Amino acid sequence: MKGLKKIRLERNLNQQKVALDLHISREALSHYENGKREPSLNLLLQMAKYFKVSIEYLITGEEKER
Predict the structure, then answer these.
(1) Rounded mean pLDDT of 5-29?
(2) Taking 70 as the threshold, does the pLDDT of residue 66 lie above it?
(3) Residue 58, SS3?
(4) Out of 20, 53, 62, 66, which residue is the most buried by the measure of CB atoms under 10 Å away?
């Protein structure tokens, strides 16, 4: 999930703030960012809405050009 950490840092948000907003633990968010765990599809959708980016961006760190 290369894009998750990238966008969080670009927006100057700390892990605790994002975790609280998404109703997950800070530890879980850290695991998602570092590739130790994968979020559920539902959580992935919530993250995409939260950051206003595509799921693809969260996973790859890049938007696909169409």
Answers:
(1) 98
(2) no
(3) helix
(4) 53
